[in-house]
Write the structure tokens for this entry.
Amino acid sequence: MPPLQRLSITASGEDAGQRLDQLLQTKLPEFSRSRLQDWIKNGRVLVNGVAQKPSSVIRGGEQIEVEPAELQPLRAYAEDIPVDILYADADVIAVNKPAGLVVHAGAGQHSGTLVNALLHKFQTLSCGSAEERPGIVHRIDKETSGVLLVARTDAAHRSLAEQFSGRQVEKTYLALVQGRVAQNEGRITTPITRDPVRRTRMTARLGHGRIALTTYKVLERFARFTYVEVKIGTGRTHQIRVHMASIGHPVAGDTLYGAAGTDRGRFFLHAWKIRFTSPSTGQLIELEAPLPPELSDWLHNGVRNSLA
């Protein structure tokens, strides 16, 4: 592979006030933010001949020289693992993730992940995240099933990340929750933070934390459960599970947040639909992951056709 060419940028008056890393993101969209920041920190970006910090403020008129570094091999490696592809183009892959499949490598998990499967099927993914999670711009819990977007290029990764952070991606879930939800629709805005006592949990009981927005709509009520459609405006860890538990209706089977145990092997939460803008065409794309058989059976045979 030929070496990457040195890049030259002249900051204009309109660029004044931006951080150096923000300016480079705008001028060099083919590279990820994390990679650009690494180059700045490693002295590969010179502003008027001098290395600067990522947070350095541009005044306008500066000459910026960027010396790209060759990509390091990804730590994640390819594994031949079956994966259900809902959609794929040059920018984005959408996967129907089954419950039980970990999205990417982490503590105690180095193989058998969704990333390993995608590297085998597609060979390359974006390098916009840490090396063990190429392509990953958002996540769903291990025991949650449903649609998940993965970026194939750094430019697509950056576009999707901006859409997620700007709350421009619409994510819709299906959940079965304990109890009969009284209101037909509801909105939950309680901030979420790490539980200081049980560190594997999050909590909405402390009155502080990160802003979180969840809305729900009742689809069907039963004697002891309610079937709901849930949309999230933010992507906090365990957000739906925490928020529904906070109003007294934990997700069915989710014992971590107070639901009764079940022999179903998982809790009832499914990432049903996602709507986003194509990074290259600007067109709206809406994708749907059908309810998996184990949840369909739980709903139809375990709830509708019982006294539940």
About this structure: The chain has six helices and 15 strands.
